């Protein structure tokens, strides 16, 4: 049998912090236990926030921690054609539709429906479920609007997608001791999720399932903040005929206030620690490695 394949997949929109270090080191530890390969993937579909200097920073930080990865490293921004092809397959089956709603319009419609006592459900990230405004638009009208250059996203028709599922959709979940269980997935709680954004021809969800399949990923190790997204990912894998890896979602590193570390909040970076004279060994010991 081929060796297990794992991946660490940061986004180059800032420098890595202790949470990233914990995830990378956890991936490395599990890869070693499984005698598997560990790949690095740069998830840079957000062209507005990604920076070449942050890519180099990722490489520098991981090398400082003593981690090495196979080359070449896959950068998502170089593979938009893969995601466009996957989106076209979903479109050909009538499983996605263009959405012309702005965030403001969606918020206003959701508010109106709640005022009437309708709706009110949120997705696992806490965002109101999309009310389906554009789901039933005539195809001719949507094609004309796209040809005219009107900005739009592409959304998954969740009801149609779930009708495609034969029986129960399951997630393979594994623990650090190597045991595995199968749990029922519930992708419907995400509603008509966006699978291609206005500014780029994909979303995190579509890109990640394509990349995992193309790179032969067998085990996905990532933070608990992405655990709910696995429901949507295994659905997309089913719809696209892709293999589903086994998943492990590790605890998050949190600050003194109990909040998860985040670049957007200015959490102290590994580069900051390095600059203050903190050794990589100290970081590893602090994180339990």
From TrEMBL:
Residue intervals of the Glutamyl/glutaminyl-tRNA synthetase class Ib catalytic domain: 6-279
Keyword terms, alphabetized: Aminoacyl-tRNA synthetase, ATP-binding, Ligase, Metal-binding, Nucleotide-binding, Protein biosynthesis, Zinc
InterPro entries xrefs: aa-tRNA-synth_I_CS, Glu/Gln-tRNA-synth, Glu/Gln-tRNA-synth_Ib_cat-dom, GluQ/Sye, Rossmann-like_a/b/a_fold
Pfam families: tRNA-synt_1c
Single GO MF annotation: ligase activity
Database matches in SUPFAM superfamilies: Nucleotidylyl transferase (SSF52374)
Similarity comment: family membership: Belongs to the class-I aminoacyl-tRNA synthetase family.
Protein name per the record: Glutamate--tRNA ligase
Species in which this protein is naturally found: Methylorubrum suomiense
């Amino acid at each position: 049998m081929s060796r297990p394949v794992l991946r660490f997949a940061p986004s180059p929109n800032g420098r890595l912090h202790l949470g990233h270090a914990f995830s990378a080191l956890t991936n490395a530890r599990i890869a070693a236990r499984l005698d598997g390969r560990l790949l690095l993937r740069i998830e840079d579909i957000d062209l507005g926030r990604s920076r070449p200097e942050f890519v180099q920073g990722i490489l520098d930080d991981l090398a400082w921690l003593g981690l090495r990865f196979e080359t070449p490293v896959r950068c998502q921004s170089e593979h938009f054609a893969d995601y466009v092809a996957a989106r076209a397959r979903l479109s050909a089956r009538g499983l996605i539709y263009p959405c012309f709603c702005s965030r403001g319009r969606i918020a206003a419609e959701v508010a109106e429906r709640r005022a009437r006592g309708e709706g009110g459900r949120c997705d696992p990230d806490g965002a109101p479920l999309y009310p389906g405004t554009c789901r039933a638009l005539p195809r001719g009208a949507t094609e004309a609007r796209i040809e005219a250059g009107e900005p739009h996203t592409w959304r998954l028709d969740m009801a149609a997608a779930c009708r495609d599922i034969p029986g129960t959709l399951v997630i393979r979940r594994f623990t650090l001791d190597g045991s595995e269980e199968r749990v029922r997935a519930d992708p419907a709680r995400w509603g008509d999720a966006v699978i291609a954004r206005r500014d780029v021809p994909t979303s995190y969800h579509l890109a990640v399932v394509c990349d995992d399949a193309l790179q032969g990923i067998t085990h996905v190790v990532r933070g608990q903040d992405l655990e709910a997204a696995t429901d949507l990912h295994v659905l997309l894998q089913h719809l696209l005929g892709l293999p589903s890896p086994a998943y492990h979602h590790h605890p998050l590193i949190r600050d003194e206030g109990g909040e998860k570390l985040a670049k957007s909040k200015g959490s102290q970076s590994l580069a900051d620690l390095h600059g203050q004279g903190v050794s990589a060994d100290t970081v590893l010991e602090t994180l339990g490695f």
